[in-house]
Amino acid sequence: MFFNEPEAEASESGDGTGEPEFEEVVIRRKKEKRKKGKREDDFKDIPVTVIRHEMPQDELEAAFPDGKYRQLPDEVYKRLEFHPASFEVKEHHVAVYAGTDNETIVKARRPKDLLRGSIVTPSLEAAIINGKYVNSMPLYRMEQEFKRNNVNLNRQNMANWTIQCADRYLAILYDHLHTLLYGYHVLQADETPVEVTKDGRPAGAKSYMWIYRTGKSYGKAIVLYEYQKDRKADHPQEFLKGFQGVCVTDGYQAYHSLEEKTAGLTIAGCWAHARRKYADALKAIKDKDKRKGTLAYDAVKQIGAIYKLEHELEGLEPKERQHRRQMEVKPLVDAYFAWAKKHQGEVPPKSQTGKAFIYSINQEAYLRVFLNDGEVPMDNNATESTLRGFCIGKHNWRLIDTVRGAKSSAVIYSITETAKANGLKVYEYVEHLLTEIPKHLDDLLPWSENLPEHAGNLINMK
Fold first, then answer.
1. What is the pLDDT of residues 333-361, one digit of tens each?
2. 100: exposed, middle or buried (C-beta count within 10 Å: 0-12, 13-18, 19+)?
3. Could you give the CA distance from residue 170 to residue 361 in angstroms, rounded to a whole number?
4. Residue 191's beta-bridge partner residues?
5. What is the SS3 assignment for the chain?
6. Per-residue pLDDT tens over the stretch 408-433
7. What is the mean pLDDT of residues 217-244?
């Protein structure tokens, strides 16, 4: 239905939907009710072109033969205009000077450009990154779109620029964010399979993209991806080396073994996974009327009651949330586990419901962690939501060609998802990074003339 989506949507909506109001189409910066008289503030981030419609003099004279009239405030209406991608060539002319002796030649300073010697600019590369890593558009489709705008950029050039920018510039920010990650008390982790074609293994071998992010309650969010060839526990152990705090995960044993090996690390479980096991059991019952009264149905209801109470605690300070969890949520959790252990033997262990019981009971210690810490979320849904963009992109491009490309993709997804998690406009943010980082990077190289004097130069000192 995707090809015929406009026709399908139009036929389903009929004629009663009506034209949307301007305010319904333009996204406001904050999710808040529009106050009277604040419309201009709501739309101030969008350029506005004022188009005036004046009455010709002869029409005015016909309407007011005596010439007596006054002009009232304009009637104002708005329409939303769209401009497709546009391109501009920036031709730099660097002045060159020569002494009259023809021996001294000097040039004017030129800006420290992105990928010097390349035609790519921060705005162009930001558009490529935004298209591929945010909007999940494969490079070949971008190549086609550029051609429709009379620009012939092949996908190989775009891929090379992207990898070089990730390795040379964005990786610096990635490493810094990795260091900052250790300063948080709560992290969340997950992983998803991905196929890399040229990694020295047989075709179809699974690689993994691991994701680590700060707890969902923190205002300053960090999201980091890491590519690895397998799913071994060594990878999170190395990535989280030195981290002291709580990490929320699913029931994968690699995380649990990590807790045993790492002093100061606590693993918390995910109630969404526990509930999902029972929900899967209910889906297997085709007759919806027969679902009620089953053990799986009762389990979903009990976990739903825990979630309902937990949602009521959102917005509280961590200490207050912890206190309320102990007083109000803990009794429901205690009741659920007592009920699960009582009824576990009533279903076959290998049935869907039996597997759900086993999962919950085996994960009990991890599922209880959130009760004792107000900063720990009840589930790992924030991480799964962050992974969704990568998974959508994965379905579009199917696989990654090289290990280097996979590592570069991990860096870029980290930067773009961190920007999204902090409410930034990804294109503008990436353009800013690719504009500013090259300016300062050369000043940090060991041979830079702009290093501070106290850094010293042992060769010159000798």
1. 999 999 999 999 999 999 999 999 999 99
2. exposed
3. 43
4. 210
5. CCCCHHHHHHHHHCCCCCCCCHHHHCCCCCCCCCCCCCHHHHCCCCCCCCCCCCCCHHHHHHHCCCCCCCCCCCCCCCCCCCCCCCCCCCCCCCCEEECCCCCCEEECCCCCCCCCCCCCCHHHHHHHHHHHHHCCCCHHHHHHHHHHCCCCCCHHHHHHHHHHHHHHHHHHHHHHHHHHHCCCCEEEEEEEEEEEEECCCCCCCEEEEEEEEECCCCCCCCEEEEEECCCCCHHHHHHCCCCCEEEECCCCHHHHHHHHHCCCEEEECCHHHHHHHHHHHHHCCCCHHHCCCCHHHHHHHHHHHHHHHHHCCCCCCHHHHHHHHHHHHHHHHHHHHHHHHHHHHHCCCCCHHHHHHHHHHHCHHHHCHHHHCCCCCCCCHHHHHHHHHHHHHHHHHCCEEEHHHHHHHHHHHHHHHHHHHCCCCHHHHHHHHHHHHHHHHHHHCCCCCCCCHHHCCHHHHC
6. 889 999 999 999 999 999 999 999 99
7. 88
Tokens at residue 246, please?
């709580």
Q: Encode pLDDT of 179-224 as tens digits.
A: 999 999 999 999 888 877 776 777 777 888 899 999 988 889 999 9
**Mean pLDDT, to the nearest integer, of 322-327?**
96
Which pairing describes strands 265-268 and 400-402: parallel, antiparallel, or unpaired?
Answer: unpaired
pLDDT score, position 25:
45
State how far the Cα of 195 lies from the Cα of 409, in Å rounded to an integer.
Answer: 13
Instruction: Give residue 233's identity as a one-letter amino acid code.
Output: A
Task: Give the total residue count for the chain.
Answer: 462
The answer to whether 266 and 245 have CB atoms below 8 angstroms apart is yes
Instruction: Say what the pLDDT of residue 456 is.
Output: 60
Structure tokens at 302: 């009990």
